[in-house]
Amino acid sequence: VLFRFSGILPPEGLVFNAQADGRIDLSWDVVSNADSYAVWTGSSSSNLSERYNQITTTHYLITPPNANLLYLAVKSVKSTNLTTGQTQVVKSDLSTIYSVKPLLPSTPVIAGIDILADGLRVNWSLVDGALDYRLYGGLDNPPYQETDYIVTTNPYAVVNTNYATTNYFELVARNYAGFSDYSAVASAGSTAGAAAESPLPPSRSEEH
Asked: Do the beta carbons of residue 137 and residue 153 sit within 8 Å?
């Protein structure tokens, strides 16, 4: 494969939008003599690398590594099969570099807790773009001190527990960019509970 870095223009008209699911929707104008494109991303404008290539459309959904500011640009690519049997790949310069901050999920809300014969059913409101939810529960308040949690895509979870004593619950939502803030703490004991004022939330640097 022979590489050249001239003779083809970089894409123009880049349009990007942060999606609710944490991904970045990126599109650009067609370059007439390009047969594919490569998307470059990085943590700064001087630290870009090729992340996605052989893109044959003018649209791509970028999955960010985290919720930090993401820098992005696009290169045009043209491949030609030579009579020697080699392939000549011509790449443009980078397009204009832009930056965008991915969206984290909104904070979920625990709507209520139902008492069942086999435990407690914790119900919450759906969060737009969430991939799943992680529920923390225990006898301590706040319950994030507990290590047990339930991962689910449903807007509820049944926790098999002894509800003769008060149980506390806290919830986070996750999308491609990371985790939401913690919900307000909700509690339930011998009667159904409702969401209550949360104590100081844990640091966002803590692992979920």
From this structure: no
Q: What is the DSSP letter of 195?
A: B
**Which amino acid belongs to residue 80?**
T
Say what the pTM is.
0.82
Is 136:110 a contact under the CB 8 Å cutoff?
A: no
How do residues 67-90 score in pLDDT, each as one tens digit? 999 999 999 999 887 767 788 889
Tens-digit pLDDT profile for residues 10-24: 999 999 999 999 999
Distance of CA 45 to the CA centre of its chain: 21
Q: Distance between CA atoms of 149 and 106, rounded to whole angstroms? A: 19
Pick from 162, 170, 157, 160: nearest CA to 196? 170
Q: Token match 């913690």: residue?
A: 182
Q: Residue 21 has which token pair?
A: 């699911």
One-letter amino acid of 47: N
Considering only CA atoms, give the Rg of the chain: 24
Distance, CA of 126 to CA of 155 (rounded, Å): 6
Which residues are registered as beta bridge partners of 49? 41
Our CA angle for 153, 133, 166, nearest 5°, is 115
Check: CB of residue 61 under 8 Å from CB of residue 16. no
Using the structure block, give the residue that is written with the tokens 């209520």. Answer: 112
